[in-house]
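Sequence of TIM barrel protein (Larkinella terrae).
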Amino acid sequence: MKSAVTIALVPEIKTGPWIYWHDLETSMAKAADLGFDAVELFTASADAVAPDRLATLCEEFGVKIAAVGTGAGKVIHGLTLTDPDAAVRSKAVSFIADMMAFGAGFGAPAIIGSMQGNVQPGVEREQALEWLADGLNILGKQAGDRGVNLIYEPLNRYETNLINRLEDGVSLLESLDNQHVKLLADLFHMNIEETSLADSIRVAGSAIGHVHFADSNRRPIGFGHTSLSEVAAVLKELDYQGYISAEAFPWPDPDEAAKQTIESFKRYFG
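Predicted 3D structure, token representation.
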């Protein structure tokens, strides 16, 4: 398993659960100094950071790109894969495809979280899920062509009324016509929705392609009441080889949050 820490470069989402903010170079340097294997990036668009510059920084600091987030598509442009307007859904697919191409240049998957959207008033749930599956089918095939996976994230009930639990996420993935979409197991969302974090991860098994490392209150692990011992044990049991990435609030501040995260990672996975 490999460690990662989030860096957000989108002012509109500044209050979100990201450890580092604004300064890409300084944040990557700090992550490397603490011993993180990679960083997870949230940018405003696929061309917000020049690939050549990012490659130079990765080489300079010896860190990789764990994943790229797509949330700016919804926050800035209002795009989701389940919008009733087909034109909006098409733009959402294009935005994610561009982000996916950017990430694939670094061997990193794109994450679909908020851009999945919701079942809108007047729309049948089955229809919304069909639109979601349509988008994931298109994007999953493109991900496979680029040699990466696409990561789909079940969110808690307060953020989406589509898929909230890993088990339902597995069912969604099994309905797709490609094998290149994997699940994101976000421990914060799971604390709200799952009966047992460890059991849910065990059932999802190889469908899990990424893990978000945050405590029950979305602060860094160790600042809430999540029991990580069982979670760590089942991930080791499954021989999970992906990233454990800190998508958590920068509490009490970014530097302390990053330090707490890497210490927790080493404690449970080192």
